[in-house]
Amino acid sequence: MNQTDKIEKAINELALREHAFASAVIESAEAEGAYRQAKAEAYLKADGTIPEKEMQADKQCQAEYARKLIADAMERLTKNKLEDCRAVLSARQSLLSAELKVHQATKNFTA
Known about the structure:
With 111 residues, the chain is an all-alpha fold. 93% of the residues lie in helices and 0% in strands. The chain contains three helices and no strands. The protein has helices at 3-45, 50-60, 62-110. Helix 1 packs across helix 2 (50-60) and helix 1 (3-45) packs antiparallel against helix 3 (62-110). It is rod-shaped, with a radius of gyration of 25 Å.
């Protein structure tokens, strides 16, 4: 596999990772919204002082909070994978550029 093929493969991988990151961002935002909504509703239904209401709301929204944390972690993970893929593509482009310069220099030297 030559450098051009490797760059094409890296570009395709980058597109997949961008799509995965976009999906993760949306999922994270939806999980955040669901958690805030559930917590607000639980808080309004709770009785007691403000700290007691907050504690009851937190207790009732544990599942939504866990989903939010997982979605946030997945967003960070997919972002890191996207950044890694961009770095690989950049490195491959640098290698191809260096190969082209060497090829041109060799061509000029032998001419």
